[in-house]
Design brief:
2 domains, globular, about 0% strand, about 260 residues, mainly alpha
Length: about 260
């Protein structure tokens, strides 16, 4: 099969997955089913016809409005669909139609869902984190990549380590520290990326939280979206995406250039 056809299939499949991801982002935090009811207009609650629910394309053709009542439909829908389509296309270009390519696409789709959900609702649904952990372990059971044992130990180690950090921080500062969702998320990251990837995720996510998140918390205008709490999962998701894409290169750079062990 020509590469361009594989990439086209990956783009189309990613857009479909992105459409479902939108449903998960909106419904899982509210503890609603992602199966029923079917997609409806947020304004008039009319059920969307199949031709008004084609990923990316329908929103463009309808100019971002409901066909029946004309209420604007959030740009988040096509943006998430396009982002997911590009994730799946990039995975196909980088790794081809392989288990590694599928693992990369699924992992980045999950962390995208976590990033958006935590930024919007300050919550990480277990369907993303624990469900993602199960998917990571299942993919590790397929021969050819990271071993199932490594995946399991990395997931368990990340989970236990974050619980220890949470317990210690709460004892030290006498107030809640870290969310359980963040802990579950790191188990998922460990299952997919292994111990080094999990460590890089924590380091990169923490740095981005300090650089991006903390200044936003102290803004005194309408651009201050975070209140007094930091959606750590959003920044961990950013770190996880970087660790997945460039983890070995970052680790090699740190060992050779910073530690001088190369």
């Amino acid at each position: 099969m020509p590469d361009t056809l594989v990439w086209a299939y990956a783009f189309a499949l990613g857009a479909i997955v992105g459409s479902f991801l939108n449903v998960c982002i909106l419904r899982w935090p509210a503890e609603q089913s992602v199966i029923r009811p079917r997609s409806r207009c947020p304004g008039c609650s009319s059920q969307l016809a199949w031709y008004d629910n084609i990923p990316i394309l329908s929103w463009i053709l309808l100019r971002g409005r409901c066909r029946k009542c004309g209420v604007p439909i959030s740009v988040q829908y096509p943006a998430i669909e396009l982002a997911t389509a590009l994730i799946w296309t990039a995975a196909a270009i980088r790794m081809g139609p392989t288990i590694d390519g599928l693992s990369t696409a699924l992992f980045l789709t999950i962390v995208l869902g976590i990033a958006i959900t935590d930024a919007r609702e300050m919550v990480i649904p277990d369907q993303f984190s624990l469900g993602g952990t199960a998917i990571g372990l299942l993919l590790a059971a397929v021969p050819g990549g990271m071993s199932l044992l490594t995946s399991f130990l990395a997931a368990a180690g990340s989970y236990v380590a974050f619980w220890i950090v949470k317990f210690g921080a709460e004892k030290a500062f006498r107030k809640p520290a870290l969310g359980v969702g963040d802990i579950h998320m790191m188990a998922m990251v460990g299952a997919f990326l292994g111990p080094m990837g999990a460590l890089l995720t924590i380091l990169l996510g923490s740095v981005m939280g300090l650089i991006i998140g903390v200044p936003l918390m102290f803004r005194r205008d309408e651009l201050r979206p975070l209140g007094t709490y930091l959606p750590l999962g959003t920044f961990l998701a950013m770190g996880a995406a970087i660790a997945q894409a460039w983890g070995p290169q970052i680790a090699d750079w740190y060992i050779t250039r910073i530690l001088g062990l190369g």
